[in-house]
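Here is one chain, start to finish.
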Amino acid sequence: MLQYQTLPVTPFQQNCSILWCDETKDAAIVDPGGDLPRLEAAVARLGVRLTQILLTHAHIDHAGGTAALAKARGLPIVGPHPGDQFWIDGLAEQSRMFGFPPAEAFVPTRWLADGDTVAVGRSVLAVRHCPGHTPGHVVFHSAEAKRAFVGDVLFAGSIGRTDFPGGDHATLIASITQRLWPMGDDTVFIPGHGPESSFGRERRSNPYVAGT
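Its structure:
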């Protein structure tokens, strides 16, 4: 069964998650935006073996620590979708703009597309392409654990911003209703910021998508 622990990182309090297979102890880290010493300490404390970096999208608070961690650990970078190439190319500029530590651009080891899968030990994550916040945003879904790691697509009580380059409100709403809702009302999601919620709760009460 897939297990996870979430640690808020960077001044933006971005939810970085460490996922691992409880059988093999193989682990992946989702969106290492920064504060790498804290993340390294958490991996050591959990006693898991970090094997890959998974990215939902390439905004600085989600991807800022990716190149440094990949180099230090010799890890493959998996994701996001190629639509976020321009955000990856602009990471150094993003870091200056938002006052983050210097961040390097990188080339993902593997780009992801809708319908792909990613293995973490014996656990399998389904990949859904969910553009709208960024063009190349992806979501990772564990059907067995009933968990989805959704980055900045959906939040408890809110949705992702669409005023950045490449963002589009109608596209984001379509991603939520067509790609997330079918995962089931009882699926708990881990957003890029703030507390967890369930798709059912958001369908009932989120003012941006209630009743969709």
